[in-house]
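Here we describe the complex-level prediction in full. Unlike the single-chain runs in Section 2.1, the two entities below were treated as one system.
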Amino acid sequence: KAGVTQTPRYLIKTRGQQVTLSCSPISGHRSVSWYQQTPGQGLQFLFEYFSETQRNKGNFPGRFSGRQFSNSRSEMNVSTLELGDSALYLCASSLSSVYNEQFFGPGTRLTVL
Amino acid sequence: QKEVEQNSGPLSVPEGAIASLNCTYSDRGSQSFFWYRQYSGKSPELIMSIYSNGDKEDGRFTAQLNKASQYVSLLIRDSQPSDSATYLCAAPDSGGGADGLTFGKGTHLIIQP
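The structure predicted for the assembly as a whole is:
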């Protein structure tokens, strides 16, 4: 069974730009969650999508948004990038909710210059 | 703010010995707990999940849960150098998953050959 895939794997942007990251969950998984990982803050929850609806959202500014498509694939968008947005962005999929086991993709390393 | 606490380490263990990793959590209503292993530069990999009080064994790994003490641990028997990694403890909140998975900052484990 194929795992979670994320594209692109690496991204370099400049301040003020926007970026879109993509995630394809494990086949049959309907819940997709996004996390930001930085050395200082560790892993922090961004949001969770289920059946094309944002079900939960972490404590991040509105510049961070996402969506989920009918095939459960998900995208997240960060607008007006700031230096502090440099991080590893991780997507995790689970069968139906965060209470189930979540499996992470390889992540997208975003660097903002 | 729900919290998951781990000793950051590093925890140094000789090869072949038992490594013991500990985690405490603040949300008394949490029902499921997960241990992830993360190698440097890689994404977290799920290694154990536990939902009931007591022990759960999977190969060289044993997870232990004590809900009364709000404590979960991971034992690694016959430690190998390849076990050297950061181990993350995680739990979803009990309020419908609004906070996604809350992660501890991780324990850096070093297995000395």
